[in-house]
Amino acid sequence: MAKRILTFTLNGKRHEGVAPDNMLLLDYLREKLLMTGTKTGCDGGECGLCTVLADGTPILSCLTLACSVEGKAVETVEALEKDGRLSAIQEGFHVKLGSQCGSQCGYCTPGYIMAAEGLLRANAAPSVDEIKTALGSNICRCTGYVKIIEAVQYAADKLRGAKQAA
Ligand code: FES
Ligand code: FES
Description:
Blueprint: E1 3-10, E2 13-20, H1 25-32, E3 51-54, E4 57-60, E5 73-75, H2 88-97, H3 109-122, H4 128-134, H5 146-165
Parallel strand pairs: 1-5
Antiparallel strand pairs: 1-2, 3-4, 3-5
Helix pairs in contact: 2-5
The structure holds FE2/S2 (inorganic) cluster (FES) (2 copies).
């Protein structure tokens, strides 16, 4: 299998590596770069567990060849926390689905967080329908969706509040 040199930005830092032409971005991130916050589930574009951002847009890394992100800015869930502080959407999931509120396995959380992060960058005040549409490629098998929508609304409120205060 042919290989190629691959250069892109990962979580704000330039990355250069070698990838086989047929290697999926999901495998490149998890196996070569040990970015295991990105989860693997169906491996077929149906669960959203593998969602990352490419140039700010959510993509399914199980359907994306690593070589196709050449020159792009890729972000995984590891990028969101800054200086020990959760991002707004991470905080939203913590508050709405943390241990007292009953998230169950949590395996779907990173994918939801990245899909929601992409939404909130494009739309600061999404409606419930817009949230449902943006998260429509993601599946939660054991907790349910009401709290996930509330988590996104929490983050949107927090981000708008921070903008108004600035
Ligand atoms: S692992 Fe990518 S959509 Fe399920
Ligand atoms: S909390 Fe288990 S799949 Fe969502």
